[in-house]
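Handout for the seminar on molecular recognition.
Each group receives one record of this type.
Step one: identify the two inputs.
Step two: read the structure output and locate the region that could contact magnesium ion.
Step three: write two sentences on what you found, then compare them with the reference statements printed after the record.
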Amino acid sequence: MKRRPAEDLAPAAAVAADGLARFDVVDAWVFDLDDTLYPTSAGLGPQIDMRITQWVADYLGVDGLSARALQKHWYATHGTTLAGLVESHAIDPTDFLEFAHSIDRDGLAPDPALAAAISALPGRRMILTNGSRAHAFETARRLGLDGLFEDAYDIVALGCTPKHRPEGFARFVAASGVVPARAALFDDLPRNLATARAAGMATALVTAPGAAATEGESFDAVTSDLADLVSRIARRRSARKSAA
Ligand SMILES: [Mg+2]
């Protein structure tokens, strides 16, 4: 698959006006957590990754390199290490998730622009994460986004099946009661958006500034500035309501 720098997408064209129209019917706003509500540069991902390696090494009594190899294998075959562990070793996810998310969140700063943008969205607002609910709430609190989401649907709520897998996504729909045709997903992983899009959701890809964008994937919006995109969607909705 050919890749090209995100800068090749003209900033204005990255969210075409026509793309935003897709969000006009949305009444449920679903946000991924990691690397979506905060930037990758906050440094949480590598910490979680290392904690998972350590948990696998301790649980199976293997060295770090072997644990790392298993972690990568399960990520490739099951979508997450946890899904692989549950299937191969029938573990209880509670201890794993607590350990994986016992991280230093000092790299996170309050994001008042994002808080204002999200709070202006009309309808239900929620988090959907392959991490834990506790991680979602603590991270949202550190970002100054607490109180903006009615709930966080986590990997346990999805039956330990990652959200990009249709059965995991279906569990989210059943648990939340959202109607995909009237819902939107903001996420940094194209595979998560592809599943949501196939179910009828409006989709927005959140990239790191200057990150490579994948060609051939089709989303309603692509942005490296989530607060900007969300505020433009909210303003458009507000203007249409006033005009109606
Ligand atoms: Mg993510």
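Reference statements: Residues 56 and 67 are 6 Å apart (CA to CA). Confidence is low (pLDDT under 50) at residues 1-15.
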